[in-house]
Specification:
By secondary structure, the protein is α/β, with parallel strands linked by helices. Helices cover 41% and strands 16% of the residues. The protein has one domain (6-180): Rossmann fold, CATH 3.40.50.450. Bound molecules: adenosine monophosphate (AMP).
């Protein structure tokens, strides 16, 4: 079982179609606040990120934003956060988020979200970090990605056991429980 004090949440800077993803982001923010788990995220008021932070703050949660100096100068920073750190580059920003977090969650989002999540999955796969990572599969958003993961396994670019190397859940409570109870996959990445 992992003690999770802080979760880094990666999520869209857009809100997605309709309001279902916004509701999902608010729910995650509320659940993390209720469970006393601090949030580290991209630091903006935009998109799902803004909804997540607003809900967590409204629930009495502690939220740290980690943003780039460039995005900060453009006025993207959420003004009500408990703490904000501005880093010179996206790379430095991602590194800092990984340092601060005990676990990672990706909500629905675009290429930025995917890239951040794939980086932490890869670092776990290579043993550079040992911090649980999970997909918040709201509206089944990540099923096509999991189909791609199945394809990687079928085509022998990924060991089958690595399917379980991340937690995938469509409800925040189950997702957080999955991260807390996560058992790391020990099969090495190379198949021959
Ligand atoms: P995307 O999924 O492409 O919308 O990108 C979202 C991810 O990239 C977030 O998890 C952030 O870490 C980062 N990001 C993208 N846009 C911004 C922004 N305006 N402010 C802060 N971070 C951002």
């Amino acid at each position: 079982m992992s003690a999770i004090r802080t979760v880094a949440v990666y999520c869209g800077s857009n809100t997605g179609k309709g309001d279902a993803y916004l509701r999902a982001a608010s729910k995650l923010g509320t659940v993390l606040a209720v469970r006393g788990i601090e949030i580290v995220y991209g630091g903006t008021h935009k998109g799902l990120m803004g909804a997540l932070a607003d809900a967590a703050l409204a629930g009495g949660g502690y939220v740290t934003g980690v943003i780039t100096e460039r995005l900060k100068a453009k006025g993207h920073t959420h003004q009500q956060l408990n703490a904000i750190e501005a880093l010179p580059t996206m790379q430095a920003r991602k590194k800092r988020m990984i340092e601060l977090a005990d676990a990672f969650i990706a909500m629905p989002g675009g290429i930025g979200t995917l890239e951040e999540f794939m980086e932490v999955w890869t670092l776990n796969q290579l043993g550079e970090i040992a911090k649980p990572a999970g997909l918040y599969d709201a509206q089944g958003y990540y099923q096509p990605l999991m189909g791609m993961v199945d394809h990687m396994i079928a085509e022998q670019f990924l060991p089958a056991s690595h399917h379980k190397a991340i937690v995938v859940q469509s409800a925040p409570e189950a997702l957080i429980d999955g991260l807390v109870n996560f058992a790391p996959v020990t099969t090495q990445k190379w198949m021959s």
